[in-house]
Q: What sequence folds into this?
């Protein structure tokens, strides 16, 4: 398998926020993002809260109507008109397993709902069998099908969410921080489930998270976002070993490593200040207000994403 | 070295309608001046309840059932209301996990900071404001004179957590309890806050109890570590001992389940099953139900703390020599 399953070109997503009686200010959540995801690969998308990574995932699935740019699925453009044909092929797993499941529905109804909507069965028996199959696929026992979501632990609930996404046999799943609400010992279970499903069913993932170690573990390539823009994109190992963009460098150095000797030797690159508001973005490079290497050029023009060789892209004037 | 805090066989339970939920089940530890103690464990392991017990800020239906908490030799569990008020904030203070909800939204930052200062010191209002500004400067809040007139909603998450730390340190406590202080923050902000806490600890010489589930944070901050599971201490020791020579099956499992710095692509080995049910505490080792090396004795009796070496103890039957095991069974 080769070629791109999903391609995004210059995606823009602005939200218009009321700032006065008549005035509205655009909040540029995603501002000109381009990337592609190959068949069967996992693209990790990392960044701090408010950088627009979740918005990218949601806009990809047309949960928001994009302000600008193109989304291509298997080479064909996805538009609000034809999105219905793609709904079955693209699914999402949400961050919070506590609020993304309807507390009034049993597990079999939750997993069965997409089957109902897309009419993917001929008889009640077939529906029941399919639900049981999905539950065993994600490691739940089918005897639990008549229970409600609150009877399950966080990790089990996230599995229900995954089974629901898998119900329609999608080719592409957007995983929006699927493990950040879970305990450490449970995270590994869910991560392994994602990996096994990819091996078995060849699903392509966009894996959104803020935990760099987990993203590095699961992804083949990683994209780093800052304030609505991609700042770096590279193979996972390459990005970890040779980060180019100053933001990626400090992000990687800030990740706490679970290794006391390494932690003692390491120098953290501490960034000054906070992320600027996306309503009031700095001119030029979005990172320049916190960057140690910022020059006059950085304030004037936004750096384009340049190919540094070997599929390693970075958006910085100083490299 | 001066011993500041001593927790002896602490038992804390929540008496709910569904029965007694045992949150802390016989926890003991000591804290010396100037030390950073890490408590690591997953949700429901009793780490936060231990902290709340030390400060006596448990809410109904939670109660300290038995045990002693000695602050400089005085038993906190027997403190009167008046003594508690003098103790909280001035001697031991806490930074909560969520800076978004633990500040009062209807008072300004300055108001909330001064409240603690006025309560615990003899400063006048004006001096208290000066102290508040001084504290905000110390924790790296820019333009503090302006900030003290702002409301929490006007500050970012990292700034709010700084205000929380400033508030906790305003009266120069001997012990600072940090309950997941950076869990709600982004990594770059987390790095700022951790660096700040390390600096302040060196400058002011207080002891810190750092509670977290993040092994990475623990590794970079603490000299000594307690691993908790199901309300019990399952392992304790220096950071190096815990990370490089874990002797409890839970600690081993925890370290195997996170991506390792040297081997990021290696397969993760998860801990099977789900966390222990606090309403139904097993008689033996709380981890036995999830442990793949569990033996018959693990289900029956809780092992005592077994000394591995001077700097390391673990409560796991795997560390008992076979001859002693038979003797006990």
A:
């Amino acid at each position: 398998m080769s070629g791109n399953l999903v391609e995004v070109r210059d995606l823009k997503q602005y939200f218009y926020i009321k700032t006065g009686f008549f005035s509205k200010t655009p909040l540029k959540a995603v501002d000109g993002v381009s990337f592609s995801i190959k068949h069967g690969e996992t693209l990790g998308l990392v960044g701090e809260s408010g950088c627009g990574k979740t918005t990218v995932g949601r806009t990809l699935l047309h949960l928001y109507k994009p302000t600008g740019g193109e989304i291509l699925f298997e080479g064909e453009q996805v538009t609000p008109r034809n999105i219905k044909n793609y709904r079955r092929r693209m699914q999402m797993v949400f961050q919070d397993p506590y609020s993304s499941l309807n507390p009034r529905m049993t597990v079999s109804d939750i997993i069965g709902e997409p089957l109902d909507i897309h009419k993917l069965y001929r008889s009640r028996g077939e529906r029941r069998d399919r639900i049981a199959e999905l539950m065993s696929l994600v490691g739940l026992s089918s005897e639990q099908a008549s229970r409600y979501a609150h009877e399950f632990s966080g990790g089990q609930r996230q599995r229900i969410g995954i089974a629901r996404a898998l119900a329609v046999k999608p080719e592409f799943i957007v995983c929006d921080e699927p493990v950040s609400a879970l305990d450490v010992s449970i995270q590994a279970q869910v991560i392994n489930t994602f990996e096994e499903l990819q091996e078995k069913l060849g699903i392509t993932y966009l894996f959104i998270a803020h935990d760099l170690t987990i993203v590095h573990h699961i992804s083949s390539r990683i994209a780093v976002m800052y304030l609505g823009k991609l700042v770096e994109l590279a193979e996972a190992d390459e990005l970890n070993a040779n980060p180019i963009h100053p933001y990626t460098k400090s992000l990687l150095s800030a990740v706490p490593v679970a290794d006391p000797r390494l932690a003692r030797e390491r120098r953290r690159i501490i960034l000054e200040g906070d992320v600027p508001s996306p309503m009031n973005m700095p001119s030029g490079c979005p990172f320049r207000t916190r960057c140690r290497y910022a020059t006059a050029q950085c304030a004037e023009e936004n750096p384009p994403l340049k190919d540094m060789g070997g599929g390693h892209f970075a958006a910085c004037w100083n490299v | 070295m001066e011993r500041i805090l001593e927790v002896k066989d602490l038992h804390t339970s929540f008496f709910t309608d569904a029965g007694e939920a045992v949150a802390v089940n016989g926890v003991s530890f000591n804290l010396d001046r100037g030390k950073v103690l890490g408590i690591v464990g997953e949700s429901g392991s009793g780490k936060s309840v231990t902290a709340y017990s030390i400060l006596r800020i448990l809410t109904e239906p939670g109660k300290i059932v038995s045990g002693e908490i000695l602050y400089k030799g005085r038993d906190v569990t027997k403190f009167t209301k008046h003594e508690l008020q003098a103790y909280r904030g001035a001697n031991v203070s806490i930074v909560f996990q969520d800076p978004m909800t633990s500040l009062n939204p209807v008072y300004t930052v300055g108001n909330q900071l001064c409240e603690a200062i006025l309560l615990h010191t003899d400063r006048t209002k004006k001096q208290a404001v000066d102290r508040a500004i001084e504290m905000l400067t110390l924790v790296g809040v820019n333009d503090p004179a302006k900030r003290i007139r702002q409301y929490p909603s006007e500050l970012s998450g990292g700034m709010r957590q700084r205000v929380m730390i400033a508030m906790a340190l305003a009266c120069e406590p001997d012990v600072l309890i940090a309950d997941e202080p950076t869990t709600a923050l982004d990594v770059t902000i987390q790095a700022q806050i951790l660096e700040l806490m390390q600096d302040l600890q060196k400058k002011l010489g207080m002891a810190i109890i750092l509670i977290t589930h993040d092994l990475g944070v623990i590794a970079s901050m603490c000299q000594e570590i307690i691993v908790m599971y199901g309300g019990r201490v399952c392992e304790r020791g220096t950071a190096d001992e815990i990370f490089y020579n874990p002797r409890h099956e839970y600690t081993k499992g925890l370290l195997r389940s996170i991506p390792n710095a040297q081997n990021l692509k290696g397969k993760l080995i998860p801990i099977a099953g789900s966390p222990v049910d606090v309403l139904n505490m097993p008689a033996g080792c709380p981890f036995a139900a999830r442990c793949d090396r569990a033996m018959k004795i693990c289900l029956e009796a809780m092992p005592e703390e077994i000394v591995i070496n001077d700097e390391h103890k673990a409560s796991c039957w795997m560390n008992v020599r076979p001859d002693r095991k038979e003797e006990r069974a």
